[in-house]
């Protein structure tokens, strides 16, 4: 009799172990577990911060353009007939 591995190996990463089947007092809780929802929320906040920076830069640019207007170009109508 020999032992043959049939499928791929997998590793279980327990999050919580309860005293009952689906409830009861918690016997073990993984302190390093981060839920996928928390990860998605962090990524969303990073993207929101990036967008806010773009909007702020755009408004600063508009203010700069208004305070420093371009002088009229003396050659602008040179090619018009």
Automatic annotation (TrEMBL):
Bias type Acidic residues, positions: 71-81
Composition-biased stretches (Basic residues): 53-63
Coiled coil: none
Cellular location(s): Nucleus, Nucleolus
Brix domain: residues covered: 1-23
Major place of residence: nucleus
Keyword terms, alphabetized: Nucleus, Ribosome biogenesis
Region (Disordered): 53-81
PROSITE patterns: BRIX (PS50833)
Family label: Belongs to the BRX1 family.
PANTHER family assigned: RIBOSOME BIOGENESIS PROTEIN BRIX, RIBOSOME BIOGENESIS PROTEIN BRX1 HOMOLOG
Protein name: Brix domain-containing protein
Species assigned in the record: Hibiscus sabdariffa
């Amino acid at each position: 009799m020999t032992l043959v591995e049939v499928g791929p190996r997998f590793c279980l990463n327990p999050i919580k172990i309860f005293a009952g089947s689906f409830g009861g007092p918690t016997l073990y809780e993984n302190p390093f577990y981060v839920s996928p929802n928390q990860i998605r929320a962090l990524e969303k906040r990073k993207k929101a911060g990036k967008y806010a920076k773009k909007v702020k830069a755009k408004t600063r640019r508009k203010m700069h353009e208004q305070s420093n207007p371009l002088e009229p170009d003396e050659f602008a109508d040179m090619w018009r007939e």
